[in-house]
Design brief:
Layout: E1 10-11, H1 18-23, H2 25-39, E2 47-48, E3 51-52, H3 55-64, H4 68-73, H5 77-82, H6 93-112, E4 118-119, H7 138-143, E5 164-168, E6 172-176, E7 178-184, E8 187-194, E9 197-204, H8 211-220, H9 224-235, H10 249-264, H11 272-281, H12 285-317, H13 320-352
Length: 353
């Protein structure tokens, strides 16, 4: 697949040799930019793991192994990746490198490494791998003859009407007879004998919804998957009274810088995360202390509000009999002083008598 803008064009003449661009990184970058400008294709510096991708090193490692199609065909992307020392957090490195090489370096490779001229040649690396096919001999076919297929015992049920088709190499369809060993809710345990080989397997059949469920789904116009998703969304509703999670020191710094950059560079919003991360790494310990204090205070705030929130949940979620018990206890505690006063008065009257 040719990059956008390259269809129907021809390759320009190189301004240097392959050996010269390999030795001189500056010459390589100038030649690459000039190449994309003449071709009318988009050129950009890719960023992986917060750092710009070294296109010169990528070109050097791939051409050193014979070019893009050879690296893909012989599966040498791991060797290419090893030269970059990517951090462990970088995932799918081979896919990303292959993507950028096809879009930025493949046509450059055709001109400077292979010396191609004329119309643009798209990369031939997307074709599926060839799957080898098995061509059985006459001896192999005799093993699958109907007379050679036997059941394991007379007590097991033979199923001549439920014959399965065994596909060999995508060319032959031969009948196979088997027996059912056991049955469960959604399938069978089966045994099949093919010549001298005995195969045991499990046959599943999916459960179909009942007529009432089908009528309900057709009436609502929703599929079972959508209905299940709606139930999930209902369970994930957020409690509006839940305390807002605490923010870290970097979160406070990010919010402050983001609002500033949005005013200064409104057209570069995609680069804000990288710019803020670099600014954070350049801060001294004293400069970070202000944001760290904000993070500590916000963490204490969240802890305090969560304790209050849990207490409210205990009161709201208590069962009805527990609430009745609490009300009775409160009434007894309120009536206790009155009873004590009555007892004291009665005891004094008895003593006087």
């Amino acid at each position: 697949m040719a990059p956008e803008g390259a269809q129907g064009r021809e390759y320009p003449a190189p301004v240097a040799t392959h050996e010269e661009v390999v030795r001189n990184k500056g010459l390589f970058m100038d030649s690459l930019r000039r190449f994309h400008s003449v071709m009318g294709t988009r050129f950009m510096m890719p960023v992986i793991g917060g750092k710009e991708l070294d296109l010169h090193l990528l070109y050097l490692e791939v051409t050193k192994r014979g070019g893009l199609e050879k690296v893909v065909g012989e599966r040498k992307w791991k060797e290419v990746i090893a030269a970059f020392n990517f951090p462990p957090t970088t995932t799918s490195a081979s896919f990303v490198l292959r993507k950028y090489y096809i879009s930025l370096l493949h046509h450059f490779e055709n001109v400077y490494y292979f010396g191609l001229r004329g119309p643009v040649v798209p990369p031939d690396v997307t074709a599926p791998a060839k799957i080898p096919t098995f061509k059985p001999s006459s001896a192999d076919l005799s093993m699958f003859a109907p007379d050679a297929l036997q059941t394991r015992g007379e007590e097991k049920t033979q199923l001549p009407k439920r014959r399965k088709r065994l596909q060999i190499g995508g060319q032959l369809n031969l009948p196979v007879v088997g027996t059912i060993d056991a049955k469960f809710d959604h399938g069978y345990l089966v045994t099949v004998k093919m010549g001298a080989e005995v195969l045991r397997s499990v046959l599943f059949h999916p459960s179909t919804p009942s007529s009432s469920e089908n009528a309900q789904l057709q009436g609502s116009g929703a599929s079972p998957t959508r209905l299940h998703r709606r139930r999930k969304r209902g369970r994930r509703r957020w409690d509006p009274s839940h305390p807002k999670p605490n923010r870290s020191a970097y979160n406070f710094f990010f919010a402050e810088k983001h609002s500033m950059l949005k005013v200064l560079y409104p057209q570069r919003e995609r680069e804000f995360s990288k710019m803020i991360g670099e600014s954070w790494n350049k801060l001294t310990e004293e400069e970070r202390l202000t944001y760290q204090d904000c993070g500590v205070k916000d963490k204490e705030r969240y802890k305090r509000e969560m304790e209050e929130y849990r207490e409210r949940l205990k009161l709201v979620q208590a069962p009805a009999h527990v609430q009745e018990y609490r009300e009775v206890v409160e009434q007894l505690q309120a009536a206790a002083p009155v009873e004590e006063t009555g007892r004291a008065a009665s005891s004094s009257t008895t003593s006087d008598i």
